[in-house]
Amino acid sequence: MEKKSQDYALILLEFKKHLKSLRITQQELASRSGIALSSLKKILSGHDCSTLRLIKMIESVDLSFVNFIATLNRKQEEDVFSLTVEQENFFAQNLDYFLFFHKIFRDFFSAKQCKEKWNISDKKYWKILRKLEEFKLIEIMPGEEIKFLVSGGLNYIPNGDLQLVILNQLSKNFNEFLLSDNQNIDHLRDKNTTPVLQAYMRMYFGKVHPTSYQRFLDGLRAIHQDFARSCIKDRKSLSRENLVDVTWSLGLANINGMNFLFKNSSISEKN
Question: By residue range, what is the domain housing residue 252?
Fold first, then answer.
């Protein structure tokens, strides 16, 4: 594995967790694998190593490299959680509760930082925290520290109330942002990360055979799922300063999009 990648970082992270669970020291691992301790320390700290050496290191603790990678991939694909219908309905009607949860869960804010950022009253602050705890999403620890009881990505109920509320509120502003001069957007960025200035948007109106339409639809779903998994991997395996915020919107519909323009024009189609 001559080139370091996010998958390599994730493999090392999970392997080190496994070593810790077995209480195997670096000295013992060096003895088992036949890899010099100095080299082993560099590998475990993130330095690149060959695939053969990586396999040798993992299999020295009675793990099958193939099974280890397969289990890791399966774990990443399954590292999602879902809300109940009741919870989604509540969040859809009380979006401020969901935004608070999103800030502390996804954006690394502490509960106290959210309270100060939005000038939330003590009464409302504790009401939010206790509701999130009631939903078994968090556990309130001493000192108002938060322990999360969920991990990974959130699976929304397809076309559920919460997803529809979020999409309705985001879609117009997001499209306007993509079409505008999007350089002056400091208020939308995480101040602690290096910005990536490029944004991308394209639209197309066309006609295709139904089989081509289905192939395109399947492709969009695959792109969404693959990149969503990458986001979860990166968030778990990389430090905050190495992450940047991303938002994307993918859409495909069996309609003539140009007809939307007719609704706001001085001409309209006659039946």
Answer: 181-260
14 inside domain: yes
Give residue 126's pLDDT.
Answer: 96
Note if the pTM is more than 0.70.
no
Q: Are 60 and 12 in contact (CB under 8 A)?
A: no
Domain total in the chain:
3
Phi, psi of 148, rounded to the nearest 5 degrees: -85, 135
Please check whether residue 168 lies inside any domain of the structure. no
Q: Give me the pLDDT at residue 2, please.
A: 36
Contact by Cβ (8 Å): 60, 29: yes
Are 154 and 81 in contact by the 8 Å Cβ rule? The answer is: yes
| Helical residues (DSSP H) of 95-209, grouped into ranges | 95-106, 111-117, 122-134, 161-179
Same domain, 253 and 190: yes
Nearest to 171 by CA among 112, 91, 251: 251
The CA-atom distances, in angstroms, between 81 and each of 42, 142, 158, 232, 233 are: 35, 26, 14, 12, 15
pLDDT tens digits along 98-156: 999 999 998 888 899 999 989 999 999 999 999 999 999 999 999 888 999 988 888 88
Residue spans of beta strands (DSSP E) within the chain: 80-82, 138-140, 146-148, 153-155
Mean pLDDT of 28-36: 91
Whether 71 is in a domain gets the answer: yes
pLDDT in tens, 193-229: 566 667 788 888 888 898 998 888 888 888 888 888 8
**Which residues pair with residue 212 across a beta bridge?**
none
Pairing of the two strands 138-140 and 153-155: unpaired
Cα(217)–Cα(170) distance, rounded to whole angstroms? Answer: 22
Q: Would residue 173 count as lying in a domain?
A: no
> Tokens 């520290």, residue?
145
